[in-house]
Write a structure and sequence with these properties.
Elements: H1 2-36, H2 39-64, H3 80-108, H4 115-159, H5 166-182, H6 197-238, H7 245-272, H8 282-290, E1 295-307, E2 310-319, H9 322-337, E3 341-348, H10 352-355
Parallel strand pairs: 2-3
Antiparallel strand pairs: 1-2
The structure holds zinc ion (ZN) (3 copies).
One zinc ion binds near residues 7 and 150.
Length: about 350
């Protein structure tokens, strides 16, 4: 518990440092972009803004989701993160649309770009990327050294303290934050609370290395974008008549922004529409419930995500001996699928026609 508090504080401090560095370089790029008249530099600044918003969502959701549920907000505040992600993407799309139309305007009506200022600003932008890469890389090596300890406490939660909901929530949040810190906006679709102990550890390691790869790819992508702007800057510096290189960069980056944010929007909307989580096979779970001894029927079957890493499930279970079947069902869902929030309504054979499924019965 204390170790986790400590870890959370550390993550939070790293997030604040990241935001500070990003704001510094974004401000520099906005000034350099306006002075040089380079749209590509401003597009890069818009990208840094999207990274900043991602960090801010992590910070705010870390504070907000720690708040306990209230009488009026009985689910707590987990989905604040999803709403925040959608709002920030809406802002980024608005900015990108403006940059895109401005780029087309500049392609039609040629405008001059100050090559030297553009080049210097783009190089500073690359430096910013390298610093961010160092900050993110540092957090990787740390989380790696913490890994053994972490897996220990995770598997204890899932195997021994299954009825104790508080601890796993803290763990999931810790995982969420570590992740979002590395890759802004990414919505986590893997739950670590899965399977038996061995499977669990494997899964956990797997998702962690995936996160590292994703964060690394993001840094590489950012660096490539900066290098693209530098190349455009060099071209414009030596051949000022080829100033089209600048809006062409913006058009290219705008398309990339659209493509990279699309899957995140999809995941957010899926959570808000109570869709079945990507990593969950609903028909497999339903079949396993049906295979429980004495279970005759499963209906009103729903699996949805409260937040990216918190799965809920509800269903009606028609059984010969409902109470023993219910116990087995809850155990199955917790042990094999890590679904801790379940609401299962049990019905006796024959009872459902009158009580549950007849719309005229009131
Ligand atoms: Zn831990
Ligand atoms: Zn970025
Ligand atoms: Zn029913």
């Amino acid at each position: 518990m204390n170790a986790h508090d400590h870890e959370n504080k550390k993550n939070l401090r790293k997030l604040y440092i990241s935001v500070f560095i990003c704001i510094l370089f974004m401000t520099g790029e906005v000034i350099g972009g306006i002075i040089s008249g380079s749209l590509a530099i401003l597009t890069d600044a818009a990208h840094i803004l999207s990274d900043i918003l991602g960090f801010c969502i992590s910070i705010v959701s870390m504070h907000i989701s720690q708040r306990p549920a209230t009488k009026k907000m009985s689910y707590g505040f987990y989905r604040a993160e999803v709403i925040g992600a959608l709002l920030s993407i809406a802002l980024i799309w608005a900015l990108t649309t403006w940059l895109f139309s401005e780029a087309i305007h500049r392609l039609i009506h040629k405008s001059s770009v100050e090559g030297s200022v553009m080049l210097i600003t783009a190089m500073a932008g690359l430096l910013g990327n390298l610093i961010m890469g160092f900050v993110i890389g540092h957090s990787h090596s740390h989380s790696h050294s913490h890994e053994h300890d972490h897996i220990d406490c995770d598997s204890h939660n899932h195997l021994n303290n299954q009825d104790h909901l508080i601890k796993p929530i803290i763990n999931l949040k810790e995982k969420d934050v570590g992740k979002t810190e590395m890759l802004p906006f990414e919505i986590d679709s893997t739950t670590c609370a899965k399977g038996n102990e061995k499977k669990n550890i494997l899964k956990h390691n797997h998702s962690k290395s995936l996160n590292m790869r994703a964060a690394f790819l993001h840094v590489i992508g950012d660096a490539l974008q900066s290098i693209g702007v530098i190349i455009a800057g060099i071209v414009i510096y030596f051949y000022p008549e080829y100033s089209e290189a600048d809006p062409i960069c913006t058009l290219l980056f705008s398309v990339i922004v659209m493509f990279t944010t699309m899957p995140i929007i999809k995941d957010c909307v899926k959570v808000l529409m109570e869709g079945t989580p990507n990593d969950i096979n609903a028909s497999e779970i339903k079949n396993k419930l049906l295979n429980i001894e004495g279970v005759l029927e499963v209906h009103e079957f729903h699996i949805w995500s409260l937040s990216a890493s918190k799965t809920c499930m509800s269903c009606h279970l028609v059984a010969i001996d409902p109470h023993s079947s219910l116990e087995k069902a809850i155990f199955l869902l917790k042990k094999d699928y890590g679904i801790l929030n379940t609401a299962i309504q049990i019905e006796l054979q024959g009872e459902k026609q009158t009580l549950c499924c007849d719309p005229s019965f009131l």
